[in-house]
Amino acid sequence: MKREYAQYLLTKTIQDYNLIAEDFSRTRRFIWQDIKPLADFVFSRERVLDIGCGNGRLLQIFKDIDIDYTGVDASEKIIEQARRHYPNAKFQVSGALKLHLPTNYFDKVYSVAVLHHIPSKEFRLKFLQEARRVLKPGGLLILTVWNLWNWRGLKLISKHLFLKLLGKSKMDFKDVFVNWGKTCQRYIHIFSRGELEELVKEAGFKIKEAGVLRGKKRNKNFYLVAEK
Asked: What range does the domain containing 11 cover?
């Protein structure tokens, strides 16, 4: 994917989330059950960064832990929702590729269902490198992405591959658009587990744990824990 088009998709994603912010927040009030065990990696008084925090609902898994939490999201409207739901938490509007945060500062960095919205390998690698920059040495990245290896995902891949073969798509292989009702089409990169793990290692991390999240959802999303 050309850099200019990747930048266009990045901007489009922010605009899309500004457009659907209220509806997104309304339908994402509570944390998914399969995410709750990811709180086990955090200890009291640690600094925790939530990249792509959305409406801040990840805070729910830390309700019994005294942490110094910061949530960042590129969507101004989404951050408005986060501040409304969690007025005592720290949130800031910031793109993930250039965080306005100090180096070697956070004990843990979380990013739940965000990386697959970042277009191009170049930008995804930059996302991970920036997460690594703000982590303390020995700090952990806890990351999840959608697992769309099902009939729905395969149909989307086939559709966009066909468009690419016809010269009607500027996106890379396994890049798709997923509808949010009739409001917008969200950009998604469909990761394989192997691809995700290789990218995280290329960004300089050491993978400590990787697998699929266990819960009631039909699609078991991928997760990994990696050390700086």
From this structure: 3-122+131-207
